[in-house]
Design a protein that fits this description.
Layout (H helix, E strand, L loop, with lengths): L1 H19 L3 E3 L2 E5 L5 E4 L3 E7 L8 E7 L5 E8 L5 E9 L5 E9 L4 E10 L9 E9 L2 E3 L1 E4 L2 E7 L2 E10 L10 E8 L3 E8 L5 E8 L12 E11 L2 E12 L2 H142 L1
Parallel strand pairs: 3-9, 13-19
Antiparallel strand pairs: 1-2, 2-4, 4-7, 5-6, 5-8, 8-9, 10-11, 10-14, 12-13, 14-17, 15-16, 15-18, 18-19
Amino acid sequence: MKSVYVLSTLILISIVALVASAAYTSGNVTFYSPSVNDQIFYVGKPITIDAVVPQQFANQPATIDFFYPNSTLAASIPTETNSTGGIYVPNAYTFPNVVGIWAITVEVAGGVAVGTIDVNVTTPAVAPIILTLQNLAMYENGYPQFVETVNGFINAVVMQNGTVNFVGYVYNSTIMPISGATVTLTIIIPTIGTKTLTATTASNGSFSLSFQVPLLSSSISLVSSYLISGSLTVTYGPHTVTYQVLMTAIPNYYQVISELNTEITTLKGELAALNSTIATLESEISTLNGSLATANAKISQLSSELASVNSTISSLSSEVSTLSSEYHTLSGEVSTLNTQISTLNSTVGTLNSEISSLKGTVSTLTTLAYGGIIAGIIGLIVAIVAIVLVMRRIS
C-alpha cells in the first residue's frame, strides 16, 4: 500500500509539474492563457485572458490591449485585478480575419506592471496541423491511474466503482496547443453498453472527460478485472486523429480494503461481545458447578438415607408379612372366640333365667333367715347376760 501511494504521489507531482509549466512570463505578468509565446489562435475564435501579477497590485485597474501584426491598436479592454492579483476575462476578444503575429499587452496601475505575449492568428485552412495528444493522465477518486500512448493505442488501468477523470492536451505539429478541438471518447463497458463523451479543448489545448467505471459484482469474492474498449477521436476542422482505447478495470482494492476493514471492525465488536458473553457464561458455569457439587453431595446424602429407608422398608415389609400372618391367625382365633362368645351369650341367657328364678327363691328364704337370725341374736344376748351374772357371783 505504501509503495502504491508513493508511486501515485510521484505521478501526481509529475503531472502537476507538466501543467504548471504551461505558463509564460513577461515583465511583471505571468500568462496562463495564452500560455506560450506565439501560440496559435484562429480567425473568428474568441480568446480568454488568464494572467496574474504580483499581489501588491491586487484590486487595481488594468487594461488588456490587442495589437494587429502591424503594431496598431485593435482593441483595448478595461478590467481589474482580483484580491490575489489575478486577471481573468473569458472570451475577451474574437480575432478578425487578419492573420499574422498579434501582440497582447496587460498593463496594471497605469503601466507600473506590464507584460506582453505574442499569438499567431491564422485560419484552419492554412494552419500546419498534425494533431497529437500529449501529457495524458487519469485520476480516479483522487488517485492517479496508469495510462500510456503507444503506436496509436491508449492503454490504461482504472479501478471499478469509481469516477475517472481523463485529461490531456492537443497540440499541432510544432507542439503548440490547439484551442477549440473536439475530443470524443467512445467506450464499450461489458453488460452496460456504449458510452460517448465529448469535450472541447481550452486555450492551452487541455481537455477533460469524466466517466464512471461500474462495479459488475458487489460480492467481494466475485470481484475480478474486465476490459473496457473503445476509441478517442480528436477533430479540428478537417483534421482528425483516432486512437484505440483499451482500459483494464481492476477491482477497487481501496474500497475492498475499506469494506474488509469495516467488516473486521464489525467482527471485532461481535468478538468482544462474544468474549463478554463467554466470560459471563464461564462465571455462570462456575456457579453452576458449585451448585452441582452441592447437589451431588445432597444426592449422595439422600442416596445414603434412601438406602437406610429402603432397609427400613424391607424390615417393615418383613414385619408386615409376619403381622399379616399373625393377623390371619388371630382372625381365625377371633372367629372361634366369636363362636364361643355366642355360646356363652346363650349360656348367660340361661343363667340369667335361672338367676331370676333363684332371686325369687332367695327373696323368700331371706325373710325366714332374718327371723331366725334375730331369734338367735336374742338368745345369744340372754346367754351373755347369764354368763355375766354368773361371773359376778363367782367373784
